[in-house]
Design brief:
With 454 residues, the chain is of the alpha/beta class. The chain is built from 13 helices and 16 strands.
């Protein structure tokens, strides 16, 4: 049972004052934001210093896959801190070795070597570096409507507008269109057409860029922040075949989709496709301690058997993070959390969100799996005009801002990006909690409906 938060407005004011004075926030104009001061969190909920409690449909930044403050993971971190708080990455450490073993047991195919990083962006940086060194080629292809991180290579590979102010026109980054039937760039009318035309577009891009210049193709297995667009049947298999044909390394980014979020350990498990490199982070520790990494195939591992890999991180495989990963993966297995995510998605979230779509003119499409869903909000279901323009800000974004405020007023903290709200609660959210969130969404969508053509 989540504890009842006790109001402490004075403490909250002090936290906010210190934040305002000294914290520089990411992705923000510093004087235009008003961060909520959070007093505590447990399970699927967090609360502020005024005693208001929120059901978290964001999982932080889609990382608290087992919810906040799971006692077994907290205890494991405390135990590791008492035993060995830190140690350099060049040594064999029990927590590090065990974390790598447990991750390798769950990754697809022969991805049995794990290179640890501190998060997802560093994982992408190192995966693409490995691909370039392995192939001796300079280019990496990535999709529009994607997000791969905010470090140098990762942000240039990213396809959403956060790339724009950081884009240096980096040599070797080439973007292409991945499939998305609801807003098809290929004028497709069916999933099969979308798949075939997207694969032809990618094949043409490879040919015109020069196959011998392309080291890797990187895709989010299911794109996350960009919209949770599940690829049509056959698409990932087709990309795998193109990579095999041209000797291109296939990288799957599972930073957000991995570790139970889609109702499988990895989203790739839905298709049986095995990449050459797989990046991960977030859910591997439920975000309790930062950890990411690259799972590496035998073939790419062999490249560095007698040739040093020119990359490393001071905190690679940090003992506290690895202990958190071991405990998180153990808890997920013991408590059937991956299966719980699949069941909640199939029996509660999926049906509930589709019911909302039928009753609210602002919902143009529902898509997702497990506890990984998106609602595409529109002004008009027929024309599919987005509720707000692409990358809207200020007054242009007012309808989504009103929707978000309504959700919070009903005790739900929503994940909002552009004209979408994502439904990404912890993987172990209960049926009652999921229904509570759907009821709050129902109320908030009535506000979004006011901005539609009806």
């Amino acid at each position: 049972m989540t504890p009842q938060p006790q109001p402490s407005p004075q403490a909250g004011a002090a936290v906010k004052a210190a934040d305002r004075a000294h914290v520089f926030h990411s992705w923000s104009a510093q004087e235009l934001i008003d961060p909520l001061a959070v007093a505590g969190a447990e399970g699927s909920y967090f609360w502020d210093y005024d005693g208001r409690r929120y059901l978290d449909f964001t999982s932080g930044l889609v990382f608290t896959n087992i919810g906040y403050q799971h006692p077994k993971v907290v205890a494991a971190i405390q135990e590791q801190a008492a035993t060995m708080t830190t140690f350099a990455p060049a040594f064999a450490i029990e927590a590090r070795s065990e974390a790598a073993r447990l991750i390798a047991e769950r990754t697809p195919g022969n991805l049995d070597k794990i290179f640890f990083t501190n998060g997802g962006a560093e994982a992408v940086e190192n995966a693409t570096r490995m691909a370039k060194l392995h192939t001796g080629r300079p280019k990496v292809l990535s999709a529009y409507r994607s997000y791969h991180g905010a470090t140098s290579a990762a942000i240039n590979l990213t396809g959403d507008p956060r790339r724009w102010p950081n884009d240096v026109g980096a040599a070797g980054v080439v973007h292409f269109w991945a499939p998305f039937l609801y807003r098809s760039p290929f004028h497709a009318e069916t999933e099969q057409q979308e798949c075939e035309r997207a694969l032809q577009h990618l094949a043409d891009t490879i040919v015109y860029e020069g196959p011998a210049t392309i080291a890797a193709i990187i895709l989010e297995t299911i794109p996350g922040t960009a919209g949770i667009m599940i690829p049509p049947p056959g698409y990932l298999e087709g990309v795998r075949a193109l990579c095999d044909e041209y000797g291109i390394v296939f990288v799957l980014d599972e930073v957000m989709a991995g570790f139970g979020r889609t109702g499988e350990w990895f989203a790739a498990d839905h298709t049986g496709v095995v990449p050459d490199l797989l990046t991960f982070a977030k859910g591997v520790t439920s975000g309790y301690v930062p950890l990411g990494g690259v799972a590496i195939s035998e073939e790419i591992t062999a490249t560095f058997a007698r040739r040093p890999y020119p990359g490393g991180l001071t905190y690679s495989g940090h003992p506290l993070a690895c202990a958190a990963a071991v405990a998180t993966l153990t808890v997920m297995a013991e408590e059937g959390i991956v299966e719980q995510a699949a069941r909640i998605g199939e029996t509660v979230l999926g049906p509930g969100l589709r019911d909302l779509a039928e009753r609210h003119p602002s919902v143009g499409e529902v898509r997702g799996t497990g506890v990984f869903w998106a609602l595409e909000l529109v002004r008009d279901k027929e024309t599919r005009e987005p509720l707000v323009p692409y990358n809207a800000a200020g007054e242009a974004n007012a309808p989504m801002a009103a929707f978000g405020a309504a959700a919070k007023a009903h005790g739900l903290w929503p994940f909002i990006n552009m004209n979408r709200t994502h439904v990404v609660p912890p993987c172990n959210i209960t049926e009652a909690e999921a229904k509570e969130g759907l009821a709050a969404l129902d109320e908030a969508l009535s506000v979004a409906d006011e901005h539609t053509a009806r």
